[in-house]
Amino acid sequence: MNCRDVVRHLHEYLDGELPGAKVEQIDAHLHQCEHCQRFLASYRKTIQLFRRTLDHDLSPEASRHLWQILERKLEH
Amino acid sequence: MLRGVLRGDRKAFETLVGRYQSKVYRLAMGLTHNAQDAEEILQEVFLKVYQNLAEFEGKSAFSSWLYRIALNTSYMKLRERRGTKIVSLDDVANQLEGISLDQEAEWSSRPDEQLHTAEALAIIEKAVEKLPEEFKSVLILRDIEGFTNEEVGEILDLSVPAVKSRLHRARLILRQRLDDFYRQVFG
């Protein structure tokens, strides 16, 4: 297993979708490859940051406004 | 709750709207990047749900049915909007070509308070805007809403390998944009 193989399977590795033997191969590679450790960490941090861009709920005011509009439209 | 809505029970419908409004809003915002469009989509989606709920056969989860409506409504809004550039799969291929796997992502060992800046979030938002709709949808449904690959495949009518492939490529593109940005910031 080389660095490109690790990157190719990174999403399945993180999501726990790989067979045990493959996970062991990736773990072994990560154990001795600082480059891939950092790549994995940066991949994880990217997902975290992406989540933060859309982590807002609809505000109570917007929610009230939505319901008012829906009620009005449902009357017609 | 769904039976109540079908009987015309407004209280049941209000409960349904309350339960799903933020999810639909996030999806619409993630696809359109425009708060006004997202609010209009929200209204249209729940009206369609109310008017078409009898057509929901229960073969899939209600949330999958709702998300399909929300996605189609968002796509229609994007088509209506003049000047919206449609991002093609070729654009993705070009973006992927620019990805380097050889550089050390040293920034990844820095604490979150140094990484989670407004500029970094803006970089991600801009990078997401440059993805095709099908990639954005997969990203949002998987990484924001937490659906499984199988559920995303059902909602988007895609095979599981196609979901995984789009998810991974989209994440790699976002990671590269961040990598470029942090390299400038941290030197």
What keywords describe this structure?
heterodimer; A: 76 residues; 5 helices; 79% helix; B: 187 residues; mainly alpha; Rna Polymerase Sigma Factor, Chain: A; Arc Repressor Mutant, subunit A; 0% strand
Q: Brief overview, please?
A:
The complex is a heterodimer of chains A (76) and B (187). Chain A has 76 residues and is mainly alpha-helical.
Can you offer a commentary on this structure?
With 76 residues, chain A is mainly alpha-helical. Helix content of chain A is 79%, strand content 0%. Chain A has one domain (3-75). Chain A has helices at 3-8, 10-14, 20-32, 34-53, 60-75. Chain B is an all-alpha fold and 187 residues long. Helices cover 73% and strands 0% of the residues of chain B. Chain B contains ten helices and no strands. In chain B, helix 4 packs across helix 9 (149-156), helix 7 (118-129) packs across helix 10 (160-186) and helix 9 packs across helix 10. The chains are: A mainly alpha (76), B mainly alpha (187). Chain A binds chain B through residues 3-4, 7, 10-12, 15, 17, 34-35, 38-39, 41-58, 62-63, 65-67, 69-71, 73-74, and chain B through 10, 13-14, 17-18, 21-22, 25-26, 29-30, 39, 42-43, 46-47, 50, 101, 104-109, 112, 115-116, 120-121, 124-125, 128, 139-140, 143-144, 149, 164, 167-168, 171-172, 174-175, 178-179.
Q: What is the fold's blueprint, element by element?
A:
The complex is a heterodimer of chains A (76) and B (187).
Chain A: H1 3-8, H2 10-14, H3 20-32, H4 34-53, H5 60-75
Helix pairs in contact in A: 3-4
Chain B: H1 2-6, H2 10-32, H3 35-52, H4 62-80, H5 89-97, H6 112-115, H7 118-129, H8 133-144, H9 149-156, H10 160-186
Helix pairs in contact in B: 2-3, 2-4, 2-8, 3-4, 4-9, 7-10, 8-10, 9-10
CA-based shape of chain A: elongated
Considering residues with a beta carbon less than 8 A from a beta carbon on another chain, report the largest interface and each chain's count. A-B, 40 and 46 residues
- Over the alpha carbons, how many angstroms does the gyration radius of chain B reach? 19 Å
- State the end-to-end CA separation of chain A: 64 Å
Give the low-pLDDT segments of chain A: none
Secondary structural class of chain B = mainly alpha
Mind describing the biggest β-sheet of chain B?
none
Domains of chain B, number = 2
* Radius of gyration of chain A, CA atoms, in whole angstroms: 22 Å
Q: Give average pLDDT of chain B, whole number.
A: 88
Biggest β-sheet of chain A: count, sense, barrel? Answer: none
User: What is the number of helices of chain B?
Assistant: 10
CATH architecture of the largest domain in chain B, please?
Orthogonal Bundle
* Total count of strands of chain B: 0
- Percent helix among the residues of chain A? over 70%
Indicate the low-confidence ranges of chain B by residue numbers.
none
- Report, as a whole number of angstroms, the end-to-end distance of chain B: 55 Å
